[in-house]
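Re: that backbone. Tokens:
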């Protein structure tokens, strides 16, 4: 028996006027998912527990069967795991964004750009190297990631700090948040050294000459220590792989004890290497693994762009180029399988950000011959079905137990 979770990140949506009151999932042509629906079951899964922000970190942790209430310690430690950084017990990781702040004085600070003009990875690495040289000490270390997404690891106890994600404050006044960093000497000294180093660096001088947003500050957030969680092998006696373009998901894979497969050309955008992902899943299962988690970021990106057309395209690509080839290969090989098609959270086009709606979930077992749902896989159908059956999945543990029940 093979087990699969196929995730269209942010695929869920609310009805849109521009689509005649329908959602992108309702409009998109998804022949393979429709076919699975015939013998499949619908559920709603509450991936984001009450009181948690609907981030991809919380929601995907939940999809991997780890109750966020119990295992979520922050976003940065998951990214550290993806980057191969092993946090010691006394270390805390912070996400360290390069940002562009308008900071003429510290009493008036605006978040001009949460990503410093999506600075290139090469430029980012040069800046992180300079910060590690000029600003690191026995307490703070800088680790390069991709583009604006880097990490700071802090050793030992540090002055408490309430942080906010910079992408929630685009073009907004962040004075109160910035002042919190400055209120304590340790953080203030670090950030002053960082700001001076960044201001003097040739990378930033060149960016300003080119009319691009400079990385004139770092924004620390998403902090936490490494979660200690049993692997999926410990819990369900299965071996598997994580297939995603996104560091966060790779980190979750490491925590869950999955092999993390890097796909050349996997971008996290609409132009990602769909065929490479599908093939990697097929190969992993054919080589004897029991489980794959395949994650596609593109529908979420379309949601953040606010483009219904891009989202429909991303969902159709998910069906035709990910779900389709994987299911066909399993059938050709004559393998029994249980597959979940779902999403981590909604990224509604009209809101351009995530919401905590419980997510539509399709479970299909290849041994099932009785016609089941027969209805299309949509937000509405899953909700109606859930109201009839009252068999809502209440969250992470139940979801995984449902998938792995044999
Ligand atoms: Zn997501």
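Recovered sequence:
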């Amino acid at each position: 028996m093979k087990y699969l979770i196929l995730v269209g990140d942010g695929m869920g949506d609310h009805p849109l006027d521009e689509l005649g009151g329908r959602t992108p999932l309702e409009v998109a042509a998804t022949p393979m998912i429709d076919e699975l629906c015939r013998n499949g079951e619908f559920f709603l899964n509450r991936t984001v527990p009450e009181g948690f922000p609907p981030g991809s970190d919380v929601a995907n942790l939940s999809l991997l069967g780890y109750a966020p209430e119990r295992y979520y310690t922050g976003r940065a430690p998951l990214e550290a795991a993806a980057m191969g950084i092993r946090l010691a017990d006394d270390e805390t990781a912070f996400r360290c964004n390069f940002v562009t702040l308008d900071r003429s004085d510290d009493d008036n600070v605006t978040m001009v750009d949460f990503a410093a003009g999506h600075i290139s990875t090469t430029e980012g690495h040069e800046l992180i190297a300079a910060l590690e040289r000029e600003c690191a000490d026995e307490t703070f270390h800088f680790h390069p990631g991709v583009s604006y997404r880097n990490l700071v690891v802090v050793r030992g106890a540090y002055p408490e700090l309430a942080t906010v994600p910079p992408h929630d404050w685009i073009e907004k006044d962040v004075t109160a948040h910035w002042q919190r960093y400055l209120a304590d000497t340790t953080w203030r000294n670090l950030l002053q050294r960082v700001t001076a180093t960044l201001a003097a660096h040739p990378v930033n001088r060149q960016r300003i000459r080119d009319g691009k947003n400079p990385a004139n500050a770092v924004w620390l957030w998403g902090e936490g220590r490494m979660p200690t969680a049993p692997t999926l092998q410990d819990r369900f006696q299965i071996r598997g792989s994580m297939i995603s373009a996104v560091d966060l998901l790779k980190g979750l894979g490491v925590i869950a004890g999955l092999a993390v497969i890097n796909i050349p050309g996997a971008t996290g955008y609409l132009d990602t290497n769909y065929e490479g992902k599908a093939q990697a899943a097929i190969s992993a299962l054919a080589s004897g693994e029991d489980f794959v988690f395949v994650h596609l970021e593109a529908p979420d990106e379309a949601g953040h762009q606010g483009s219904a057309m891009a989202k429909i395209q991303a969902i159709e690509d998910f069906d035709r180029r990910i779900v389709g080839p994987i299911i066909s290969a399993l059938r050709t090989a004559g393998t029994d399988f249980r597959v979940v098609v779902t999403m981590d959270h909604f990224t509604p086009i009209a809101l351009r950000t995530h919401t905590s709606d419980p997510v539509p979930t399709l479970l299909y077992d290849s041994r099932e011959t009785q016609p089941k749902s027969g209805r299309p896989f949509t937000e509405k159908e899953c909700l109606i079905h859930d109201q009839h059956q009252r068999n809502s999945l209440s969250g992470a543990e139940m979801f995984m137990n449902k998938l792995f029940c044999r």
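The chain has two domains: 2-71+228-404, 91-224. Residues 9-10, 56, 59, 300, 344-345 surround zinc ion (CB under 6 Å).
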